[in-house]
Write a structure and sequence with these properties.
The structure is a homohexamer of 143-residue chains. With 143 residues, the first copy, chain A, is of the alpha+beta class. Chain A has one domain: Tetrahydropterin Synthase, Chain A (2-Layer Sandwich), CATH 3.30.479. In chain A, 29% of the residues lie in helices and 30% in strands. The first copy, chain A, has a five-stranded mixed β-sheet with strand order 3-1-2-4-5. In chain A, a hairpin with a 2-residue loop joins strand 4 and strand 5. The longest helix of chain A has 18 residues. Chains A and D meet through strand 1 of A and helix 3 and strand 5 of D.
């Protein structure tokens, strides 16, 4: 059983701020620095979704990239692109808009759709700037 | 007189929206599409500032990159990084926050400081996403 | 009159070979080397289209990037993406499929549409690999 | 025993199409979309080969990168660069030219040579476009 | 327990040569090739440090990137940037300046500080050129 | 006469320092900062050479990229790669090793060979880090 890992990249642009509602302005400023700017800031986010599977003998595919791309567009790009992550995205409501929390929530948004499409979600990488990114493996063993 | 063009790259992350106050919501939505999202979106902006000059025989420099970097940080990064371009940036007040308008205003912010440092501002390139960017030559002949 | 130059990037993947029908196999092999492989090879092409203009006071736009992107998609990506440049592309018929010839022909495909959309085509950059690309300014003075 | 993973990157440009000989034209078109274009299309492929090992005390090397590069050039670049993956590459004959199948076959082409050079092949990453790539770990546990 | 992996990127520019003091000039030249140039050569090194952890409910952070960046700057960039890796860096003294040895030594420089900051060092990736890089997981199981 | 500009990219890795022999250590340190480190530092330099010309009707080429690449390798990469720019490169002898001075000297090294190969050298871009680069047009009007 020769598993291959295939990755699809998509991008979205969004505003957010890092802000803990239970804290004073001073503490938010102290912990989150310029990321706590009251009037928001934003990023070009890049998301890379990796699916694990054995290539289908008839197609040579682990998963059809057209299907994988469509799942990401429907479940991630549509609700997050050109949006405010704190105000506009239902699955981020009430959560701190850190990349760590984003990647955990995105995992839950796409995991089942990928399974239905015949693949196994293995990893999500979320790039916020050229200098920082997060990776998530569903809380289980990383690859 | 052998002019060389030297470029310094800096980055900033900001929120904005494209919105014409004189228009209805419908017209803003029609013209600006998802960029008109009421609650903002954002980008990682990359700015490249190009200075023209003849290398100084004692230093081999057109301009000391430490000086050029400091000018960009003081005049562009400080007021724009982790800010809302529509609300927080004095020199963008009352202007549509398009990349075209941004690059024109940034030119005016740094031109004189670069001249004082001994160089001549030749070009600003402002990258909004991997798919679009603008270039400005001060309204005069481009290079 | 403060002209700004705005650029839109698009990509397409195509097969081609460099082959002069008037030459022997030996001469084709000698001049074009591995690029003359009878059974084709291919590339991920990146095209950057630059439009010159003065920002519209109502929109802040030189040209609406949605319009520019649509023109490139209709006139360049649709006929060239996932195609054979020697066999499938009408406007390349009978021409050597070099990047130099491609960029000249693409210019003629999009120039008028961009003018109708209110902009002036200033430059096309066509990247074939990370190590080589061409730029074209319509045969007139470059910027 | 402090294992380090070292990676060498190489590139090749090739034509291919996705086509199942047992299917009708309609089914090929339906499943593979524009990738089934009869006259081929192509890509700039980037391959990253990762070797695991403990640095040699005399050289500081897991494997001499000159040797690793030469193995990749002899076994992968030479047979695949500026070629048609469906027609010209012996080890792809009779196989669907998907990136998944390519990475599995490439593994078998280089595994033994790397072992002879004193390293252990740990991973191959094959990038087809900026938006999709595959990774393979020999069918065993990934790292 | 949903572990997320967060990565911070930093850069430094350094000179080095590959040279084994116990070998003749001829053997150094034979094994290390142009990397053995007596008068040194150099690189732009990129380092990516990955920290594993469960996001803090109050901050959404595995580790504050400001802290992580500061640790890397203090322990890696300060001693290595614009330095000679063979002559100027205390923790590389007496060791072959290969990327493999560099990444092992850097691990020991930052591991404890990251633990004190509340994270667990999971991986260091050190990029020497666009064509080669190394990864290290502390000698234990990779992720 | 439809001139096209074609560019070839090559890379080299070198050590250097910025140091004015006529100055005290203190002044060198003050002006050049960490770039004056006595024991050198280094970079991965990327050079992009642009040639202007009208495509040859028989080849579709402004210049054969194999020839252009060979000229750059012979005249630039061979003398500069894995070398010390202050000590090892004849055409940099006695000159401050700034990127500005490098690009001017490289111009003189390759200009005639490109003319003999049938092209016209139009521009050299020399990238020192991701944050700074220089461009040179032979001292005449830039394009």
């Amino acid at each position: 059983m020769k598993s291959v890992y295939i990755t699809r990249r998509e991008i979205f642009n969004a505003a957010h701020k890092l802000w803990n509602e239970n804290w004073s302005d001073e503490k938010n400023e102290k912990v989150f620095g310029k990321c706590s700017n009251r009037n928001w800031h934003g990023h070009n986010f890049t998301i890379l979704v990796t699916v694990k599977g054995v290539p289908n003998p008839d197609t040579g595919f682990v998963i059809n990239l057209t299907d994988l791309s469509q799942i990401i567009k429907d479940k991630v790009i549509e609700p997050m692109d050109h949006k405010n992550l704190n105000l506009d995205v239902p699955f981020m409501a009430g959560k701190l808009a850190s990349t760590e929390n984003m990647v955990i929530e995105i995992w839950d948004q796409i995991k089942d759709s990928i399974m239905i499409a015949g693949g196994e979600l293995a990893k999500i990488k979320l790039i916020e700037t050229e200098n920082n990114f997060v990776e998530y493996f569903g809380g289980s063993e990383p690859y």
